[in-house]
Amino acid sequence: MNPKELNILLADDDIDDCHFFKEALDSLPQSNRLTIVNNGDELMEYLLENIERLPHVLFLDINMPRKNGFECLSEIKAHESLKDLPVVMYSTSGSKDKINVLFNTGADVYIRKPSNFAQLVQVIHHVLPMAAENIFSNGKLKYILNA
Fold this sequence. Notes:
With 147 residues, this protein is an alpha/beta fold. The chain has a single domain, classed as Rossmann fold. It has five helices and six strands. It has helices at residues 15-26, 40-49, 69-78, 96-105, 117-132; strands spanning 6-11, 32-37, 57-61, 87-91, 109-112, 143-146. A six-stranded parallel sheet has the order 2-1-3-4-5-6, with helices on both faces. The chain is globular, with a radius of gyration of 14 Å. The chain starts with 5 loop residues before the first strand and ends with a strand.
């Protein structure tokens, strides 16, 4: 993995899932900086206020209050300054139809939320090198990671 510290943004309204994610990230050997927002409005406000220093990757939950992950993804990909931000959709849903819509809207990776800590560490460990190397930038490859 690239040795530089990655700035990671997690948008998830479930406090337990956020804690679980932070613990998994902290267990990895690389140093990363995690910012957490808890709803879609907060996410979009954060991104627009930080356009000059966007995160390396956004982990975006689908089911959030105020503005859901689908709505946020659409806004991100329609905004000229945000459209190249790598977006990893992160949800409990495994619906192939939803996943196809997400990919067609611009998501780079879809992760079904793992049921245990070791699986969560594993999927995060697979995504971070892709973010570090910025392999999402061409938009041609899409990834589904299931633990």
